[in-house]
Design goal:
36% helix, five-stranded parallel beta sheet, 370 residues, alpha/beta, oxidoreductase, NAD binding, D-isomer_DH_NAD-bd, Rossmann fold, disordered N terminus
């Protein structure tokens, strides 16, 4: 990835290993601001490029740990402040910093930001962005796909293993005050040697395949574009042109595909009926990839064995949703990229892209309209 000179000046390029408590901890250390930067900060945030954020704290804000680093480069303007003073603040905003899907970028907002150059969005998904609309305003778009691929693949395998071996149920059994004996018939599904079907063989899907190979799994995949032969051979993956074949062959089905109009509702009642009754569905993509009513029915009737979901629609689910009551379901709160290291890398990548855009340099991780 190319890094702009401006970014190199502002950020130390290497993580440093520090010893502590018997473990090595990766630490990202911002370089001390230059004399010029210090003068800018002394003059006030208004002398830095204006960047619109949803909020600085709370459930819909940026990571609070990142705020001080961001303020070294930008004048952070919250959505509330902007809405209260559009006339003054609108022309100051040159970038929108999207974290956890917020703030939403609408046509009305774009009309209110005459100086906007870039929308920088954390994560790999783009379903919350209208790329054509932004292109019509001459606004660039960047995201952070490389930062999220490894931790999301890690979580995908964690969910697969937890569902296969009934880890959550086992924990509840082990800690229950009513448990007097462990049942001898408490069984799960074996992962070693099983067939994993990966739907969506992008960077996340491919890293899942790399991890699955270490478990000696047989790997089949379905993707809109077939991978190169050497990439398939490196992980022992077989391409399935027909999704139906993958569903029928797989012991585990992993959804790692982007949400688009073509993939919304990809797994419905028909597709669930094609799966083995012992199969486990894992979704680390987007909730709308799956017809949740059909999934509930499939889990209740034994059409499939179990499901492990990091994503649902909506998020969070209503507290009376049937998925919350089923023992053969594992749910996590959309935490695919939720590691300290990944979230910091996401922030750094967004900063790089914004600074490059404002400097007229090539934008790392620019999303191009196809």
């Amino acid at each position: 990835m190319s890094v702009s000179p401006r970014t190199q000046e502002a950020w130390e390029p290497f993580d440093q290993l520090q010893s502590g408590a018997g473990a090595n901890v990766l630490s990202f250390n911002p370089v001390r601001p230059s004399e010029h930067q210090g003068q800018q900060q002394a003059m006030g945030d208004q002398d830095l490029p204006g960047v619109l954020v949803s909020d600085l704290e709370g459930p819909h804000g940026i990571c609070e740990d990142h705020a001080e680093d961001l303020k070294r480069h930008f004048n952070l303007i919250t959505m509330q402040d902007f809405l209260e003073n559009k006339a003054q603040l609108g022309p100051q905003i040159q970038a929108v910093y999207i974290w956890c899907g917020r703030p939403a970028v609408s046509q009305e907002l774009l009309h209110s930001l005459p100086s906007l150059k870039i929308v920088a969005s954390a994560g790999a998904g783009l379903d919350h962005l209208d790329l054509g609309l932004m292109a019509s305003f001459g606004v660039k778009v960047a995201n952070t796909p490389h930062a999220v691929s490894s931790p999301t693949a890690d979580l995908g395998m964690a969910l697969l293993l937890a569902a296969a071996r009934r880890v959550v149920e086992g924990h509840q059994l082990a800690v229950s005050p009513h448990t007097e004996n462990f049942p001898t018939d408490y069984m799960g599904q074996q992962v070693t040697g099983a067939t994993l079907g990966i739907i969506g063989m992008g960077s996340i899907g491919y890293k899942i395949a790399q991890r699955a190979r270490a478990f000696e799994m047989k790997i089949v995949y379905h993707n809109r574009k077939r991978r190169k032969l050497e990439e398939e051979e490196a992980v022992g993956a077989i391409y399935c042109e027909r999704l139906d074949d993958l569903l029928q062959w797989s012991d585990f089905v992993m959804l790692a595909v982007s949400l688009t109009p073509q993939t919304q509702g990809l797994i419905r009642k028909r597709e669930l009926r094609l799966m083995k009754p012992t199969a486990i569905l894992v979704n680390i993509g987007r909730g709308l990839l799956v017809d949740q009513e059909a999934l509930v029915e499939a889990l209740q009737t034994g059409l499939i064995k179990a499901a492990a979901l990091d994503v649902t629609y909506p998020e969070p689910l209503p507290r009376d949703h049937p998925l919350l009551e089923l023992k053969n379901v594992i749910l996590t709160p959309h935490i695919g990229s939720a590691t300290h290291q990944a979230r910091r890398q996401m922030m750094e990548n967004l900063v790089e892209s914004i600074l490059a855009s404002l400097s007229g340099l090539p934008i790392p991780n620019e999303v191009l309209l196809k």
